Amino acid sequence: MPTYEELLQERDELLRRVAEQEKRLVEQEKRISHLEKLIEEVRRKGKRQAGPFSKGEPKADPKSPGRKPGAQYGQSASRPVPRRVDETLDVQCPLYCENCRGKVRLRGKESQYQIDLPPIRPVTTEFVVHYGECQDCGRRVQGRHPRQISSALGVGGVQLGPGVISWAAYLNKIGGLSYGKIADVLKEMADLKVARSTLCRAVARLAKAAEPSYEKLVENVRGSKVVYPDETGWRIGGQSSWLWTFVTSGQTVYRIARGRGYADASHVLGEDYSGLIGSDGWAPYRRFAQATRQTCLAHLLRRCREMQEVSTGSAAQFPSAVQTLLQVALAVRDRRDAEQISSRGVRIAKGLLQARMGRLLAQEQADPANQRLAKHLRLHENELFVFLDRPEVEATNWPAEQAIRPAVVNRKSCAGNRTARGAHHQGILMSVLRTCHQRQLSSINLLTGILHDPQLRPHRALTGSSPPR
Predict the structure, then answer these.
(1) 349 is in which domain, residue-wise?
(2) How far is CA 20 from CA 11, 14, 213, 316, in A?
(3) Which of 80, 134, 241, 447 is deepest in the core (most CB within 10 A)?
(4) How many CB atoms sit inside 10 A of residue 455's CB?
(5) What angle (nearest 5°) sits at the alpha carbon of residue 245, between those of residues 399 and 267?
(6) What is the dihedral of CA 328, 330, 335, 336, to 10 degrees?
(7) 376 belongs to a structural domain
(8) pLDDT band at 71 (very low <50, low <70, confident <90, very high)
């Protein structure tokens, strides 16, 4: 039978546990109340018509609308004077002032230019194709002009030219227009009647012609020193799939695949990729054993901010400390790029940051969310500050995020592809168009040139090792 002192100790222990539980219940009630308010706010925003486009509370001191100062637009704040003037109209000065009816004395003249689109009229080219018959095998033989994109006659005797096909591909893959809307645009602007199915087949032929250039882009990405991958959801035939993007300094490759694993990533990068991968914390990228990795600090900073929004008390201290360290690292990078700190100073600052992060991760975390964040940081501890050693490496994977955005806009209108073949063509044309944007090349001229190339060779301006200056 327990003694009186043992009963007192047991009572004290029970009272202590009850006090701890009551304290924990109070904290949990506060957390539940806070989360309920957040959920209610998200529900209200989702019901509003402008909810999907909301960026949060407006800024207290927003930028003024309209045109920004001229320095942001280059050397001149005004549009450059056109090289060619097609029509000149002389505008005489009134003889009397419209305000006071006083007589006007002429002082000089100035020029104003108005740029407009001319009426668009389709240009039709007739190819008179001569044909014959082989005396040995009896097979039909016919000629083909370099400007012909197809040798089909008869039913296929009236075809769309490379300019129309290139514009259709641009409007569909960049503008996000459906083939039906593109047909309406061609009818409205050029009085050109064309069916949606015709445009779809023509764009598929363009993708097939551009496939050698696409394969060369994939080869260049595999040989690049730095690549930024990312992925987002897609649809193939109504089934869940993934759109992958791989961005280098002068090229972008898209690939639509069923999966989101290492096999899909290595299909473009190759299993033996030995460059640097700047990505988020997605696990398959860690399986590239020969590669160096830089984890995206923007994802970590966003995670820390979100954790602080829902954390209370001491639980918010850990994500706040992590956020502070990452922001200090970005400040060191900015000072390095502005040449305000020497390379030796950068190395010292990096060593201090690594030591502070190591001490922070050595601490025990009671909050489950903090435990998950600490586990993630320990896994990527050596990948946090690589960008301080290599100026050509970004601290975030923003190049891939920027490349994903046009695809996301396109996804809102098309919702994906109906077939795997269409998804393959989608990846080819999006890669070509995005690379043109990076290299400041004319997409329409380049696609037209690809259609005119009968040998289907990779386009040198598109697949060169370095972008043009």
Answers:
(1) 297-396
(2) 14, 10, 67, 20
(3) 447
(4) 5
(5) 135
(6) 120
(7) yes
(8) low
